[in-house]
Amino acid sequence: MPEADSRPLAGRHVAVLLGGLSSEREVSLVSGAACADALERLGAKVSRVDAGRDLAQVLSRLNPDVCFNALHGSWGEDGCVQGVLETLGLPYTHSGVLASALAMDKTRAKAVLAAAGVTVPGGGLYDRREAAAGHVLPPPYVIKPNAEGSSVGVFIVEAGANSPPEAIAAEDWALGDQVLVEPYIPGLELAVGVMDGRAMTVTEIVPAGGFYDYDAKYAEGGSTHVLPARISPAANARAMRMAEAAHAALGCTGVTRSDLRYDDVNDILVLLEVNTQPGMTPTSLVPEQAAAMGVAFDQLVLWMTEDAHARGHAGRTVG
């Protein structure tokens, strides 16, 4: 008799959802490829699915045991794909429909987080043309789309700027008619991964160009990650508590990443947003934090897959 395959996912069929329809498609392709490779090393039968509008038909034909959702941005991360997977009765990684939709809507997420006692920036939601016509907040401030990730479409309006960026009023602007405008918080860029409700550690991010934009996040050499962050033990503990509280308040499951700003001069720490499907690329923060905690990349992918499978067969949830 042939020997049984001892790899932990032997005999399991995993569909890895990657690519997708959002502005973060290219990042998702990289995340998905890394996770698919890991799943194959773990013994799974892997179907790599470039998720399009025919996703339901494709998955119905494949009939996987579990879906590893490596999509980023709108449609894949905002509850839409999660709703498709719920309808099909397929277990999937990361958060459910409601938590995904809520976290992607930055304005509504901030209201929930503030009610839970998490410190968030001020500001508000504005029509993009109004925000482009004149300063709606005293500079410096930040303008960002209300429902995008990876710093897509984010602008910092410096102190002394004569006018807001013209780009947000352009005819080809495709990131929604409403933009979130928040006061700029000086200081350090921090990130905290949360796995199964518990914070991993705190990373300090030092962008090469001074702003943690798309290139700083994903281009080689775009930023330096300092792990653990160069902050006081008290601030470190506070950041981890805030990330755990945010994860819980939004009803997240699996792995998330909270992005924070820390004004280390005035000891002001604010949570900017929660990413329900953090990047899994070679430069991504969550795999790096997991490694620092002794969890190798393949182990992280294995835990996420088994967690999804267990939750799926314990009864689906939209939370």
Topology, number of strands? 12
Shape: globular
Number of separate helices: 10
Spatial arrangement of strands, main beta sheet? 10-9-8-11-12
Percentage of helical residues? 25-40%
Q: In CATH's first tier, which class of the largest domain applies?
A: Alpha Beta
Which class best fits the helix and strand makeup? Answer: alpha+beta
CATH fold description of the largest domain? D-amino Acid Aminotransferase, Chain A, domain 1
Binding site for Mg(2+) 2: 273, 275
Active site: 24, 150, 284
Protein name: D-alanine--D-alanine ligase
EC number: 6.3.2.4
List keywords for this structure.
globular, Rossmann fold, 10 helices, D-amino Acid Aminotransferase, Chain A, domain 1, 319 residues, disordered C terminus, five-stranded antiparallel β-sheet, alpha+beta, Dna Ligase, domain 1, 3 domains, four-stranded antiparallel β-sheet
Explain what this protein looks like in three dimensions:
- The protein is α+β, with helices and mostly antiparallel strands.
- The protein contains 10 helices and 12 strands.
- The strands form 3 sheets. It has a 5-stranded antiparallel β-sheet.
- A hairpin with a 4-residue loop joins strand 11 and strand 12.
- Helix 1 crosses helix 10.
- The C terminus is likely disordered.
SSE layout and pairings?
Layout: E1 13-18, H1 25-41, E2 45-50, H2 55-62, E3 66-69, H3 80-88, H4 97-104, H5 106-115, E4 124-127, H6 128-133, E5 141-145, E6 155-157, E7 178-183, E8 188-195, E9 198-207, H7 214-218, E10 223-226, H8 233-249, E11 255-263, E12 268-275, H9 285-292, H10 297-313
Binding site for Mg(2+) 2: 273, 275
Binding site for Mg(2+) 1: 259, 273
Keywords: ATP-binding, Cell shape, Cell wall biogenesis/degradation, Cytoplasm, Ligase, Magnesium, Manganese, Metal-binding, Nucleotide-binding, Peptidoglycan synthesis
